[in-house]
Amino acid sequence: MYKFISLKNGLANVEGIYCDGVNAGLRPNITQGDVAFIRSDTVAKIGAVYTTNRFQAAPIKHALRYGKVFESNFILMNAKNANAMTGQKGIEDIEEILSKLPKELNLVNPVMSSTGVIGYRLPKDKIISAFDKLNWSAKNSDATAHSIMTTDKFKKEICFEVVLPDGNSFKIAAIAKGAGMINPAMATMLCFIVTDAEVPVEDIEPLLEDAVSLSFNRISVDGDTSTNDTVMLMANGKSGVYDKDAFSEALNKITFELAMMILKDGEGSNKVVAFEVTGARSDEDAQRAAIALSNSLLVKTALFGEDPNWGRIASTIGASGIDCDEETLSIYYDDLLIYDAKHRELDSKREEKAYKVMKQDSFKIVCDLGLGEGKFTAYGCDLSYEYVKINAEYRT
Amino acid sequence: MYKFISLKNGLANVEGIYCDGVNAGLRPNITQGDVAFIRSDTVAKIGAVYTTNRFQAAPIKHALRYGKVFESNFILMNAKNANAMTGQKGIEDIEEILSKLPKELNLVNPVMSSTGVIGYRLPKDKIISAFDKLNWSAKNSDATAHSIMTTDKFKKEICFEVVLPDGNSFKIAAIAKGAGMINPAMATMLCFIVTDAEVPVEDIEPLLEDAVSLSFNRISVDGDTSTNDTVMLMANGKSGVYDKDAFSEALNKITFELAMMILKDGEGSNKVVAFEVTGARSDEDAQRAAIALSNSLLVKTALFGEDPNWGRIASTIGASGIDCDEETLSIYYDDLLIYDAKHRELDSKREEKAYKVMKQDSFKIVCDLGLGEGKFTAYGCDLSYEYVKINAEYRT
Fold this sequence. Notes:
Two copies of one chain form a homodimer.
Chain A: E1 3-6, E2 17-22, E3 35-50, H1 58-64, E4 69-78, H2 87-99, E5 111-114, H3 124-129, H4 141-147, E6 156-163, E7 169-177, E8 190-195, H5 201-213, E9 219-220, E10 230-235, H6 244-264, E11 272-280, H7 283-295, H8 297-304, H9 310-319, E12 330-333, E13 336-339, H10 348-358, E14 362-368, E15 374-381, H11 385-393
Parallel strand pairs in A: 4-5, 8-10, 9-15, 11-14
Antiparallel strand pairs in A: 1-6, 2-3, 3-4, 3-10, 6-7, 7-8, 11-15, 12-13, 12-14
Helix pairs in contact in A: 1-2, 5-6, 7-9
């Protein structure tokens, strides 16, 4: 119905959007960028969804003074320092930094977004000194995407041109960071989406919340939720084009693909697995089981070991507190029946097939509870030695 | 007030209690025992606390037909096979196995307890053939404790003689297994406690539930809860002695020490950490935060890395959904202040001290929320490469 055309160079494609990233020396001995911006050359609308962590970081508290949807034309970003647990001083630091941005940018409600270590004041001078190096008229999506990375192994950047049946089109693009501390409700990450679609102000928040609930809130790397999670959508309307269904589909597509990229980059992860729970008494039950599966250490290590130990799947469902019954449960790895009440033991033929399924880079585990119509899919990854290594050594 | 005397040889000390364990070939190429029993030469009372997992294993369903407290003189145990997710056949297998026990044992309500892999029928013939090898008049606590081990690195066995002020005494002893799949509510493990104290039937269940809530329900290795968790208390009254306070204290002490042994044996763990949450709005809030801390992968890997990254502690509390405030929170490692609103950044002097605390085999992390009187302590351990290795390779 709508045509989605993938475009290179991410944010750069969107009309009126400028961005750049430079190295301000926030990460010792690393030449990659660490301070970046995204701006619109006209005042845009920004909608945001933030972490549910009670210790919201200073940049979130600062941005929330404008409400959940607000007029703005500027987002400043930094890596390495989360500006979290920094109290009132953390907010004052943001105000001071933003006040040093060039007057000629005609800033309206500029906001900031940070990621990195918790508990340290921002290195204000270093960040402000980066302002001389940033090119405010650049469309440097690559440097911007790189500048928000922390333990990410690759940049996450995506852009579509969406062509409507009448031939009109708009563009939507996004960058994201995130590899660890990923949890449903919501995934710990930063994501900045920009579009030149003419999105009405009343559509911004509901469409963004839907998109987040279908993407970032369904992925889990390690069950932890950070202080800084932020998804922002900046819409400047410069294309003059809008179609609600097309925009919603594009927004869902872009956030889902970014969520899958984050999972693939899950710290030390090798596989992406969809946990599809069906036949539950309610969608809430299905969600609880699917999320428990995506978070279970025993499931994750069995995925890493490529061991078709379905007992860990069953045990995790049983422990999730939902209504379930071993007589009505069935478990499939892709299309392969692994367990039902008539096939309780894995014979060698099915076990052989199960090993093959598990050797894939991605597959699904379907758990049909056989009790009702409730369903939910969550996405997870395996847990490897590498995860422990990255997280034992992070910060130092 | 009461004298607790530690005795060697565990279960063997308790009057009228006999036990043994032998190798029935359930674990290929391993000579360690895998089938064991505990019996009383008079009919005793058994109280039990079982897993909250909805997929309770067949031995639990079988034992539950007698209620939570029942008369019995015999417990049969096996390792390697959990007899879980085996349906009605799993229960029939238990009935058949128990019916083959020697008649001269005068069995009253014999029960079974199993641990191991989920989803396979018990090897009935092998287990029954072990009956010829077991010595029904043995007091072989060591072999019994070894026979219920799975990934445990050491046996867990403990015995006290409890001397009352009047000089009378009773004995209480226990064995346990558990190293992985440990989670509060409740810890995945088997624990068999025997005593010759003359415990009134009405005291058995409440005292056992109290003891479990203060011990096994406060430890976490990996946040998973198994299908087979069982704590059984067998009291045969043969000492003719009882004092409720003394018995309760002894039961709490024995279960707490076993819980700490399980944590020390936590798969690949190197440290035991007490997460003491105080100053919460309620005990429930404190419990939620303490358990979240003991389960957090990011906290556990930071413990392994001996990294005083208190931001992960704060972030986990913030994500636990309880009421908290960065202005009133304070965090201590042992007695060392790590964070409060006046000391947000860790200076190098305190950081140096923090490294020292974290190098210990065990220490406490105290989080005072500064909001009320609620408190709870949970116990956890670090997460190492070894955990991933053990769990990626288990079963195969």
